Each structure stands twice: as C-alpha cells, then as structure tokens.
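This section describes the prediction task in plain terms. A model, or a person checking by hand, is given the sequence of a single protein chain and must write out its three-dimensional structure as a string of tokens. No templates, partner chains or ligands are provided. The sample shown here is typical of the held-out split.
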Amino acid sequence: MERPPPRLFIEPDLGQALITTADAFLEPGFDRWSGDYGIGYGDGATALVLHHLPGSEGGRAADLILHSVATVAAPRLERMHRGDDPFGPAARSLGPKVDIRRTKKAFLQAEGMEAFTKASAASLQSAVESCLAGAGLSATGDAPLRYVVAPRLGRKTIDLAYAPLLTKLTGAELLRPGADTGHLGAGDAAASLAELRTRRVLGPGEYALVVSAGAGFTWSCLLVSGA
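The expected answer:
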C-alpha cells in the first residue's frame, strides 16, 4: 500500500517551519585545507522552508516534496575525531587547533581501517534503506529514483566510500554537489536540496535521494520528488 508523505511535525496551528544552519571553519582554530583528509571545508549558511502540501491548511505550491528522512549514527567511531585525547570540557580546551588528521591516525592505529569501513558501509546502507522504506520503497536497485546525491565531500572519499554502495543500492545516477562550496558542515543537506531546486533537474513525480554525512559519525538521507 502506498504511504502518504510525512506531515509537518510542529505545532498544529503553524503552517510553515524555517530551518537554518551556519558554520565557519576559521584559522587559527582550524585549517580548512589540511586539517582533515579528502575534504575542503567551506564557510556558509543555509535556509529552507517546510510547509504543508497544497490542499492542506496554509499550503501552497512546492518546489520539492519531502517524502522521508532517516539518520543513522555510529557513535563507536567518535574516536575518529578525538583520537587518544581525553574528553574535554569545551572545544579546543586541550589545544589551540583542531587537527582531525592527527585524531584519525590515532583511531586507525588502534582500531584499523576495516573497523571504520565496515561501520561506515553498514550505517550508510541502513540510512538509505530506512529512508526509502519510510516512503514505501525498497533499496533493491529498482527503486524509482532518478538521482542519488552524494555528500559534499572530496572526490576520492566519494569514489571509495560512497559511489559504489549508493549506485548498487539505488541504481540511480550519482550527482556530486559542492564543487564550488566544499563541505558546509550542518548545511550540506540543505545546500544539496537548493542545488536540486535551482537546477530544476526533477520533473513532477521524479525522485532524488539526498545523502549527507557528519562527524561523530552520522549518515542522513532525505527523499524528495519534483512537485
């Protein structure tokens, strides 16, 4: 049975929700170019508006229809960004600069690369399958997706950790956003949605799965379609 799109889960009397993000990766606390592997960090802010579908109270024409959202976390990987350091009371309390290369090296020396790659692949697959299932679809390679949108990470990272699995799970064409912005932190998903909207690549009823990833680690998916 086909499931309806999710409703706006806020106060019943409100018809719209504004969601914003903002991040800045500034010296001397962080080196945006060499503070991590395979990622260039960009400063930026995003904003998007969620509202009811037309026909519901307060509804109006939509650019994209949101069908499902899923997030999967793998907290056992938190040492990738902490390394051998103890937990600190605040950011940069243990040193003047955030050095993710150093902490990743410490994790890999202790746990090995396989521990990360297995957890990453399992979490990404779970996020994709949960998001598609939330809209009544299945991740069998024949889901009616036109595009799957990769996280806004470096090309090598996408080629090794994301492209093969996303293509296998969805069978959809892979889009690689973020060439002009880099990784925007919390704003990645919203920025990718904005690119889909601006480029008008989705026709009515055509689906795209937007994937994002964050430290800690988390993987998130949003399933949208053209209005």
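For orientation: Strands lie at 16-23, 44-51, 64-73, 145-149, 173-175, 207-214, 218-226.
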